Task: structure prediction
Amino acid sequence: MKSLGSIRRDFAPWNDPNAKPYIQFDNVTKKFGDFTAVNNLSLTIFEREFFALLGASGCGKSTLLRMLAGFEEPTAGRILLDGQDLRGIPPYRRPVNMMFQSYALFPHMTVENNIAFGLKQEGMPKPDIEKRVAEMLKLVKLEQFAKRKPHQLSGGQRQRVALARSVAKRPKVLLLDEPLGALDKKLREETQFELMDLQQELGLTFVVVTHDQEEAMTMADRIAIMDKGEVMQVATPAEVYEAPASRFVAHFVGNVNMFEGKVAERSANTTRITGPSGAQIVVENGGAAAAANADIVFAIRPEKIKVSSKKPADAVNALEGEVYDVAYLGDMTVYHIRLDDGQIVRASALNAARVTEDPLTWNDRAWVSFRPDAGVVLAR
Amino acid sequence: MNTTWSRFNVTSIVLGFAFLYLPIVLLIVFSFNESKLVTVWGGFSTKWYVSLFHNQGLMDATWVTARVGVISATVATVLGTLAALTLTRYTRFNGRVLFSGMVFAPLVMPEVITGLSLLLLFVAVGLDRGFFTVTLAHITLTMCFVAVVVQSRLVSFDRSLEEAAMDLGATPAKTFFQITLPVILPAIVSGWMLAFTLSLDDLVIASFTSGPGATTLPMKIYSQVRLGVTPEINAACTILIAVVAVGVIIASIANKRREVQRQLDEQAAQRG
Result:
């Protein structure tokens, strides 16, 4: 059976028409003066889902999170949590907790008092607080740092305190605003997996805001890609990457080659596209965008393009050009091929073997080839 | 680094420090003068300090000054902190510019004018001048200084701390007392000390607004000096200088210690 991407999980309530959404944004608009931060946006998130809001800064993703936490009220529309309309409920009465980008640890309190703060607010008995705090410290492996103040901790430790504090109250939903933004690359990668494990362990619903596509791809069950206050696509990481809904999404996530063209012929299973210079591309299942005579773009990821010095005998799609640039990155090699019609194509080849039988270098003649199902047809 | 002292450097340092401290050194030296004549050295003695403590007028004035200082500094700190909070938090209310201008105007207002206008007000509303009016006047004078000090701290205050507290279930009032107040407390304390010091050495406004039975120390000293400087006054001033100096030194040592400790902690944290 063919499937997009390589990960298949049983968890997919968004495909179940009977599943009840847990968080629901209904036509939500948020304006700050004349500026529209969130524009008539609707979105559903399911229980126990790890949901990522991905977008460039200023796209409205943080505003969405802050509306869920209660720091901002929508100008129009409503937000439902487990069926309850959140309008007018102040942040301190909402069953959601947030982990802040700056961590927002209380500087005058020790680690354990930071974690206990929320529990004290709800009037939990003291022995229970102590038990829960100990449990949380163990969860984030900070047992020996309980008596320290935040400024006595490293960046990674602070991040874990912030996390422990925000899950200590066992909220229905945990909101994470750029949770790993302040960590260095190596620590960030480790922490991504820790967060995923934690979410599984606690069985919480996570909504994370990030501008880092890799982070979103790694952690999330589904990603909402946002631009200018609107959702461009909501899908699993594999769908977002392999079946982007628009040029914007294709460009935003990963690298992509775009061929502009026209639909020349359409049959049941295949679509033939003609480029401006007359080059032909045959595509399997053109999708909705591929109506007859429509102006379209064909989007294909670099790793799905094969580069060779001779035209592969069995290739359906093969275009000729010249090697313009080569970059050897160790695990893979990136080629920039200038096609004879002038377009530059980016192709990447995994260096699965230590030696290559078909070495290519600057100015060599080369062929790029790809399968009919390697790319997608998008509206222009 | 250049470690040799050029003649120019030495001259400027000597001149600079002489300019700043010669009058004070002279005052301190002559407070230990045996002679009753202020400008003639008659040998070392501490008798003026002893007689100072038997001078009922000066002691009363000191007591008045201390009470006025503590009360006015405390009230001014509360009002100034509230003003600073309003000015940094509610940035979009109507008339904010006017309000902040009005809060900070007394900073540059000549004291004579502040004093005179307060006097006119007290007369107009029929308040008997005395302890109460001096205290009120000092609150007016020092409140804006507190507001400035606290506001500069609030500007760098991370609002997400308060959001985090509310997110964790604390009501706005609890958030203020458990998070905001402890974090800005050092600024509030320095605001209080500044207000207290200002009240302590104010002569002009106190002269306008004080009445019988509420003579402050600066007023007392000033009025005595008009009858001739006595070594007793020198002794009183030396004690004042000592009190202020000790306060400043303690504050700066505490500050320095905290800074060093923080750096050590941070280095320790970096090492893991």
